[in-house]
Amino acid sequence: MKDNTQNIIFGVLVGLPAMLIIWVFALYFFGCGTNNTCTGIPQPDRTPVPTLIAATLPAPKVGVEAIAAKPRCRVAAVDLIGAWIGAGFPETETFEFKDVKDQTCTATFADDVQKLFLEANLWYDGAPACTTCHYADVAKATKNMDLSSYTGILAGSNRVDGKPKGDDLLGGGNWQNALLYQVLYAPDGKTEINRPAMPLGRPANVPASGPVIAAGIPPLPDN
After folding, report:
1. 214: which of 63, 72, 88, 193 fits an S-S bond (Cβ 3.0–4.6 Å)?
2. Local structure of residue 190 (DSSP, 8 states)
3. For the chain, how far is it from start to end, CA to CA, in angstroms?
4. Can you give the residue ranges of every domain in the chain?
5. pTM listed for this prediction
């Protein structure tokens, strides 16, 4: 009986520390594993895919942004329209004009002339776009005139009942005889044909040939 008691006491004294060691080891192993997260050792960040180095080159400019980034000439709006009409009012081909520095620059209808009819606040602060009154629905447009497109400009004014051809706006290619010139050229805000200067509401302080705008491309420098 005495031997059995001694064996039980011995087993408890030996078994309890062993169980405690096993329990602590199990907590460490299953809680921390093998990644050292419980040791205080900093671990490196890992991502599932390699990190790409950010591009440092600027994106190339395209479209209108690319046009705006090029060197531009400066020219009065009325003079630019006159040069386009004097060149035979091409739709897609380039035409030449003289800028305020007397350089020979090149321009196109789509990039340079058309905006003079489409953009508000261009002729003066608060100016309506020409197409506010003169738009594609010629049955309702003022003077039955469409200035929103190349075709509409060439079709002319007074297109009653939407007829395809009205009164010529371009003077047959002679700018000084053109109706457009007669309503856009306005010294002190007054036209030479006693009609309101365009765009409507144009103040007297706008130069006779309209504002000087950026348009066209200057000649290439000599090598």
Report:
1. 72
2. B
3. 119
4. 1-38, 63-215
5. 0.69
| 78 and 202 Cβ atoms separated by less than 8 Å | no
Cis peptide before 211 (omega within 30 of 0): no
The set of residues, in sequence order, having a beta carbon less than 8 Å from that of 36 and lying 6+ positions away, is 43
Type and span of the H or E element at 110: none
- In terms of Cβ atoms closer than 10 Å to its own Cβ (0-12, 13-18, 19+), residue 44 is exposed
Handedness of CA 185, 188, 192, 193 (dihedral sign): positive
- Joined together, the tokens standing for residue 158 give 């007074």
Hey, which residues does 196 pair with through a beta bridge? Answer: 190
Per-residue pLDDT of the chain (223 residues; tens, 9 = 90+): 555 566 666 555 556 666 666 655 555 555 555 455 554 445 555 545 544 444 455 555 554 454 456 789 999 999 999 999 999 999 999 999 999 999 999 999 999 999 999 999 999 999 999 999 999 999 999 999 999 999 999 999 999 988 999 999 999 999 999 999 999 999 999 999 999 999 999 999 999 999 999 999 999 876 5
